[in-house]
Amino acid sequence: MISKLLIANRGEIACRIIRTAREMGIATVAVYSDADAKALHVRQADEAVHIGPSPAAESYLVGEKIIAAAKQTGAEAIHPGYGFLSENAGFAQAVIDAGLIWVGPKPSSIDAMGLKDAAKKLMREAGVPVTPGYEGEDQSVERLKQEADAIGYPVLIKAVAGGGGKGMRKVDAAADFEAALESCRREAKASFSNDEVLLEKWITSPRHIEVQVFGDSHGNVVHLFERDCSLQRRHQKVIEEAPAPGMDEATREDICAAAVRAAKAVDYEGAGTIEFIADASEGLRADRIFFMEMNTRLQVEHPVTEEITGVDLVEWQLRVASGEPIPLKQDDLFIDGHSIEARLYAEDPAGGFLPSTGRLDHFDLGVEGRIETGVEEGDMISPYYDPMVAKLVVWGETRAEAIDQLADIAESVEIWPVKTNGAFIANCLRDEDFEDANLDTGFIEAKLDTLVSADEAGDDIWQTAADFIALAETEEHEDLPIGLRLNAPGRLNATLTHKGETRTVNAAASHVDSLATGFVDPERAVVFADGQSFVFERQSRGSGAAGAGDGAILAPMPGKVIAVDVAEGDAVTAGQRLMVLEAMKMEHALTAPFDGTVTELSAATGGQVQVEAVLAVVEPKEE
C-alpha cells in the first residue's frame, strides 16, 4: 500500500482525498500556489510544498514542479484529482518515468479517449452505441457542410479536443453552418490548440446519463451504475443524481454493459466515467442512448455514486494504484436509495452569474447532508480558480426525500459577503418539472427567468433586519427593560439602507418571529433567507435622533461615481438622492437616510471608490 501521497490539486477535491488517505493511514502532501498559501487543503495535509505564482499555468499546471515536490517530500504516488493535469497523458507518463505511482489510468488509455473523434471510432468497434455523426479526417468546410446536410439539422459541431462546454455550437439551419463552424474552430484553437471538429446529430430531448466504471491491473472491470447530470447551464453541470430517474432495469443493464465494454476496449484501470447522451423524447430506452465521451479520472459528482453504493471511490483508487484488485465483484454491488448533489458556486445569479470573489467573513453550510468543501470561514474565494465553494450532497430512501433534504440545505446557506447560487439551486429542486423528473439538458436555460431569484429584499426581509437590530440593541443593554429603551413605547425604529433604498422600519425588540437567520454588527444587519444574503446598512440606532456617525453613506460595492447631486452644507430630506454609483454595468442611487445636513462629502464625479468607503456624512436635523 502507498505510504505517502502527493495530491496534485487544490480545493474541495484535495480535502476529500486527504480525508480518505488519513483514514487509510496514508500520509499526505499538498501543493499550493501563492493564492492558496493559507488554503484549507494546505492546513489539512501532513506536509505542503509551494509550487509557484497564483495563475494555474504557473503552478498547478506545471508538471515538473509537482513531480519535484513529490521527490522532495518522499511521496511515492501522485493523485491528480480532477481538472488541471488529471487527463494529461504526458504528465501521467512523466510521473511513471520518475519512478512514482500514478493514481489513475494508464497514459495509453487517456490518449485513446482524449480525442472525441478517435474515441467514437474505437467505441463503434467495441459495440458501444454512438451518436450518428461524422468524425472524418477531411476537415474542409465543403465536406463538413455536406456531412451536416446528410445528418440533418439541427446538428452539433464539437471540437475533437474539447471539454468543459467549450468548442461546441448547435446549428439549426444550413444557412448558419459556416459561421458557427468558424466560431467553434476559433474557440477550439484558443482553448485546446486544436481546431479540428466532429459533427453529431442534435438530440431533441437530451438527457445526460453517465456510468461510473472501475478497472484494475488484474483485468477486472466493474460498473457502479449510472448518474443523471442533465441539469446544466452552458454545458456546466449544476445538479447531479443517482440513479437516473426513469431508468428501468433492462435499460440500466444495457447501458452499464456498454460502459464496461468501453472501459475494456482501452484496457482501463482506476476510476472513469462513460458519458452518454440519451434521446428522452419517449423516455429512457437503450436504443436511444449514445456514447459521447469518456472522462479518464474521478468525476466531480462521484459522491452520489458513493452514497448509493456505500463505496469509497478514492479508497478504491488508492488500492488499485497499489496493485490490489477491485475490492468488490459486480454481483456484490447494488443500488440503495437515491442521492443528489448540487454545486454551490461563488457567483451572482441575479447579476448574470458573474463570479463573486473575496473573503468569507461569514460561512455556515449547516450540519445536514454531506458537505464537500475546500474553504472555511475567513478563507478567500480567489479569482484565479473555479468558483465552486462546495458540493452539497444528500441521500434519501426515495428521490422525493432526497430532493426535499437538498432544497432545505440550499435554502439554509449562510455565506457573506460573497454571493452564491444557493437560492438558484433551491429553485431548481423545487420546480415541479424537476420533481416530476421532466428533465433534459435545456431545462435551466428554458426556465432561467423563473429559477433566478430577485435579489431585492421584500417587506418581510426589511422587517426581519429591523427586528434583528432591535433585539441586538436590547441585548446590549440588558439593564434597560424592553419598552423603556430610549423612551420607546414598546418598539424601536431602525433606519436601514439596502441597495440605495432607505426605510425607517418599526421593529419589535421582544422577539423575532422569522425563519430567516442573520447577524448584526455596528455598521450593518445581514439577513439570510431562502439561500440568499440581504445586507442592510444601519443609518441610525434606537428610536431617538441618530448620532452624526450614523449618517455615513458607504459605497455598497467597488465602482465609479457618475453623479453627485449635493454639496457640503446642503440640507437634505430622507430618501433624497445624494449621488449615483456605477458598478458592474449598473447604476446605484445612494440616498439620505433621514432629514439633515451634508457635513462631509468625499465623493467626486468620475472618482473610483472601494466597497464600504465613506462617500458622505449626513448629520440629522435637530428636533
TrEMBL record:
Cofactors: biotin
Species this chain originates from: Qipengyuania aquimaris
Domain ATP-grasp span(s) in chain numbering: 120-322
PROSITE patterns, per the entry: ATP_GRASP (PS50975), BC (PS50979), BIOTIN (PS00188), BIOTINYL_LIPOYL (PS50968), CPSASE_2 (PS00867), LISH (PS50896)
Name assigned to this protein: ATP-grasp domain-containing protein
Keywords annotated in UniProt: ATP-binding, Biotin, Ligase, Nucleotide-binding, Transit peptide
Highest taxon listed in the record's lineage: Bacteria
Chain ranges of the Lipoyl-binding domain: 543-619
Molecular function GO labels: ATP binding; ligase activity; metal ion binding
